[in-house]
Amino acid sequence: MKETVIELQHLKKYYGLVRGIENVSLKIQKGEIYGFIGPNGAGKSTTIRTILGLLNKTSGTIIINDKKIDCEDLPLKEKIGYLPSEIHLYDDMKVKDILDYHALFYKTDCSKKRKELVKLLKIDEKRSIEELSLGNLKKVGIVLALMHSPEILILDEPTSGLDPIMQKVFHDLLLEEKNKGTTILYSSHVLSEVASICDKVGFIKEGKIIKEDLIENIRKYNYTYLKISSPDIQKIKEDLKLKVVNENNNEVTFLNDLDTNTIIKKLSKYDISKLLIEEISLEDLFLNYYK
Amino acid sequence: MFLVVYLIYPYIITDEAMKSIDEMMEIFPPEVLKAFNMDMSSISTAYGWFKTEGFTFVLLVIGFYVSLLGGNILLKEESDKTIEYLGVLPIKRSRIVLNKIFVGIFYALLIVLLLGLFNYVALSITGEFNHKEFILLSLTPIFIGLPFFCLNLFISTFLRKTKKIIGVSLGIVFISYVFSVLSELSSKVEFLKYFSLYTLADTRNVISATALNPWMIIISLGISTLFIIGSLVRYSQKEFI
Description:
The complex is a heterodimer. Chain A is of the alpha/beta class. Chain A folds into 2 domains: 4-219, P-loop containing nucleotide triphosphate hydrolases (Rossmann fold), CATH 3.40.50.300; 221-289, Alpha-Beta Plaits, CATH 3.30.70. In chain A, 34% of the residues lie in helices and 31% in strands. Chain A has 11 helices and 14 strands. Chain A has helices spanning 44-51, 74-78, 95-104, 111-120, 134-146, 164-179, 191-197, 215-220, 233-240, 260-267, 282-289; strands at residues 4-15, 18-29, 33-37, 59-64, 67-68, 80-83, 152-156, 183-188, 200-205, 208-214, 224-229, 243-248, 251-256, 274-279. In chain A, the strands form 3 sheets. Chain A has a 6-stranded mixed beta sheet with strand order 6-7-8-3-9-10, with helices on both faces. A 4-stranded antiparallel beta sheet of chain A has the order 2-1-4-5, with helices on one face. Chain A is elongated, with a radius of gyration of 23 Å. Chain B is mainly α. Chain B has one domain (2-237). Chain B has 11 helices and no strands. In chain B, helix 7 (93-126) runs antiparallel to helix 11. Chain A binds chain B through residues 15, 49, 52-56, 72, 74-75, 77-78, 80, 82, 84, 86-90, 102, 105-106, 144, and chain B through 80-85, 87-93, 236-237, 239-241.
């Protein structure tokens, strides 16, 4: 069994009386890419910032590399690379200067990795930070997160601002890091993105993890949209006990996880004027968790 | 303003003009003259003006500068959100605070030195003056500058945006100065001097005894140390939202 690198136990963070996260528990194994999915305000960034020590937890436990994290831990910080959703750097510095400055804080020799990343991401080190577009700033952020070869990568909406080509380059880079044994927490609100790269996914809603599963299992979910028009629609709703996605007079769309034979058997006793069974995309499945 | 004064002072202060100034000064109550050290020094020379009105401006300028510096030096990281970068680097928060204090004090000493040098050169051109007294006088802003810097640094640890600290920093200096002047004007409100950091400059002692008041240095360093400790404690617990 693989070792657990990041473990959160009932992590709670309140901003005064306002809920940040309510009860977040998760485990991320070594070399795993964990997709952290949720809409804006669900608590993804709060969870990440609490792990990083930028916020103080209200209660719960953070365990990293089998060690409870309660105060500043410099050796641990050495092992973490962080890419925030919005990059804020010192505007008056040049890219070269910020990369040099960053390297000073780490015991690891960052020069080789830095060179590779700058070349791969096509970064012009002579430009000043304030001249950079959002995408280029993100690329500098990627170099800063990776150049000290961290064992743990924490990425908050990492592809926002990157063009599709650069997104592909970035994902390939993450897979390379994963193969080297880097553990990655990948926060996003785009399920297709998470599905394409992550091993496991946790859905967060209103500060709580509402579902967690391996991405291969999520792909196997046999969900369909079931659209039924019938004068007996109320009875059908009570009988099927499925989640209603849309309702319009006598026509109702259900989120269905029953197999087709069972559905047909159940519906055979009703007067059905229209029946439609549709495939459901991962994105739609994700959206249905949050309705 | 200082340059203008230094350039024209030797030409406008004639014996006749001085007599008129002395007559004018007699109109002011002694308390008012005391508030600006005019009871101890004549403004018949550029150096005399410097020791009285001029040095008040020096103390105010340095007070405003170091207060804004102290209020902004840490808080700017949060206001500009660069703390999200700095905060995850393998560096202790206490080191961030101490390095910022070190840089801040360097800048505070630099402005004291630059103003001192400027006035020294300009006064040397305008005429004779007491060099020892001038040097000691020029050191006194350090004893108000340090606590002003550290007090504002401490207050900034309770805030998140630099725009909120600007008014606070300027207000503290202004109120402190007003308290200092008022405490000289009437014995009834003399207690206000205990609430003013400007008391720590104690320029009257330098002018009367040509010496720095060691108690003021000790109190200045003590207050600064307390606020530095407070800032370190506050910053170590601060959340970067």
